[in-house]
Amino acid sequence: MNRDKQDSEIEKLKKEILDNIQRCWKCRMCVAMCPTHEGWLTQSAAGRLMAINAHFKLELGSEEELSDLLFACATCRRCQERCRALSTDACPTDTILKARQLLIKRAQAKKEKKYE
Question: What is the pTM of this model?
């Protein structure tokens, strides 16, 4: 794939993810619904969205740490159902899945760049 096109797709996906995160009210009503939550906020949809935002917007944390958080999500969509019940437009599970996709695309781009 053309590098410019690939970079454009990555930036478009990143913008979509960050826009989705802004829809979250940060009410944390999803925390108790999350089957992977064991006491740490980052083990819930709210915490994962905050981590995604911190990484992609503020460049905090490593991609490995973010990947561990995102792939620990069970993608059960309970958080998304809670958001829908609260009439928010947030789609935490969809955002987490897109952030996973973005991490994979970035890794592929780095790998391709390495072999150029």
Answer: 0.91
